[in-house]
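#struct-pred

JT: dropping the chains for the assembly here, can someone run the whole complex?
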Amino acid sequence: MDNSEVAAIFYEVADLLDLQGVAFKPNAYRRAARSIEDLSEDLSKVAAEGRIEEIPGVGKSMAKKIEELLMTGHLQFLNKLRSQVPPGLLELLSVPDVGPKTASLLYKELGISDIEHLKQAALEHRLRGLKGFGEKAEERILQGIRTLEAKGGRILLGDALAVASKYVAYMRSKVQIDLISPAGSLRRGKETVGDIDILVGDDDPGSVMDAFVSYPEVREVAMKGPTKSSVVLSSGLQVDVRVVESSSYGAALQYFTGSKEHNVALRRIGVEMGLKLNEYGVFERESGKRIAGQTEKDVYDVLGLPLVPPELREDSGEIDAAKKGQLPSLVEPSHIRGDLHVHSEWSDGTGSIAEIAAEAASRGYEYVVISDHSQSLKITNGLTPDRLRKQIEEVRKVEDQLDGKPRVLAGSEVDIKADGSLDYPAGVLRDLDFVIGSVHSRFKMDKADMTRRILTAIDSGWIDVLGHPTGRIIGHRDPFEFDMDKVFSEAKEGKVCMEVNCFPDRLDLRDSHCRMAKEAGVMIALGTDSHRLEQMDFISLGVTTARRGWLERADVLNTLSAKELSNHLKRRRP
DNA sequence: GCCGTTTTCGGCCCGACTGTTTTCAGTCG
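RK: done, full complex below.
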């Protein structure tokens, strides 16, 4: 039973308690579940060392339940709860506008215990007799079920950013707006987002709202109030906008950026100081006097904290770090001096080496790594040793023509075969400036074999970077299993970097794994895995992921200058 | 069920919007 399984069980307990109308406990379980998810070590290890109760939000009672889960794989308490709540009632909670109160009411009054029956009842107009239910409520629930059936999913950060910037540009074109910014999980840079939040600071909310709902791609206006509106786009994506007076913009931006848990923690600090936080500002409880709100920094200031970067606002240790003045100084886009993973037309990319080099130069990079696929990956037109030698000649030629601005490194994304050997012999690898080793096949190997496979590749001494280390494709392929602790410690030993593959549906390593890698002393290399020139933009998604993983400039390989990089690479050739 | 330089008991974040209410409960973020 791993951490995420224990967390999932606690979430279920919380929902079941909610359905029974139990107060406060549900949130206690949710808080503990979140702490467990964020834990950077195995729960079983924490348990073995008697440190379970050190997990935030876990006390005696939950510690016992965790131990029971780890020992037996079951939880009596959960079984009891399940027997008290009809199966299926849980799924009702996933319907928008159906919360615990409504779900229990539906069950008690109409015996409804799953979405299918709810849909039937709504279609037959059997809901409108219920207390608090009218025609509208019935329609809303039907609409909610349709929305759920239609999408249910979250969209990739890269896609959401594009939608948001288009939307913001539209609103700006329609009406004069003082201040506007995406907020929510989008601003925090989560790898996927469920909806898009936009915050506006303006003293004329009416016209902003009108502009907002007039966006051509709006399919449905779900709600429209004087300061808050919500629409569904034809893609099914929900977009919320909130308008506050410009003088409250900082407080509101803080508030709507979240995360919810981060904000709860901040308000708790506020309460201790006799302050009240809301989207309009920070107020003294006694006098009601407003003491901050213009900027986000002011809000954190009056709480005695430095400004916490949005990417860290997950209540996963950043508040403590802020209190102690130990927030990391995060890596920034401007620190990045090159792209370490780019495909050309030699394999399955589209750009020529000269075009890629020119693109890198136009981005102000000092270097770029050409890293096409190796020979086994036939489907990508992987390079035979012969073609690779020719490509290296071409790389040298282009670099000479540009007088080394940028430096163009001859690299390869070399396949790590099932036995851990590399797809080129040493004689070929020796001619390369930069080697990314990647697993592209046999993802379903068992954990021990996959661990051995990766360790063998690292131990070869040839690879500089382990490419997309977990192999996941967000929403399509789960990460493959291997012993990350072992791999990280071996990588540290061999001075091998882990990649953050910046491709929008990879982001691999992910944020939390970056943090683990840093703690293990492993450097991160950002590579866009570009197959077209414009995809080199993806570097910003990688920087965001690195920031969410608490990485600083010194943790990221591509913050080195060209000279430092080549020294680094020279040092570690076998 | 957790937690505490005000507390080991008594709190537990806060406000907008909707629908159906004739003053507010439920849901959401």
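JT: nice. Residues 333-571 of chain A form a domain with the TIM Barrel fold (CATH 3.20.20.140). The longest helix of chain A spans residues 157-174.
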